[in-house]
Write a structure and sequence with these properties.
seven-stranded mixed β-sheet
Length: 112
């Protein structure tokens, strides 16, 4: 079955960096567009970034543009989200999605 497992979340100080990974199985990853979403406490889930099948095309929410980078390794069936210059407002549970499935989420907390 479709499985997506996020990792890499944690506590980081403002201005710091984290790299999230989304390991997948059970679907044709290399043929699938992939996305990262996030949901902050008390807020709706929002789209963060999208990447097409070969990584040639990406989209970023305005709130993360210039700070986050989405990428993928089709040989490893894994997607990544490099997050730099993190802000307290980036605190959220981050989810990956693709292949009609969702991961369980990984918590990112940005706080001093």
């Amino acid at each position: 079955q479709v499985q997506l497992v996020e990792s890499g979340g944690g506590l980081v100080q403002p201005g710091g960096s984290l790299r999230l990974a989304c390991a997948t199985s059970g679907f044709a990853f290399s043929s699938s567009g992939m996305s990262w979403y996030r949901q902050a406490p008390g807020k709706e889930r929002e789209l963060v970034a999208v990447i097409n099948t070969f990584g040639h095309s990406t989209y970023y929410a305005d709130s993360v543009k210039g700070r986050f980078t989405i990428s993928r390794d089709n040989a490893k069936n894994t997607m990544y989200l490099q997050m730099n210059s993190l802000k307290p407002e980036d605190t959220a549970v981050y989810y990956c999605t693709g292949g009609n499935g969702w991961g369980q989420g990984t918590l990112v907390t940005v706080s001093s």
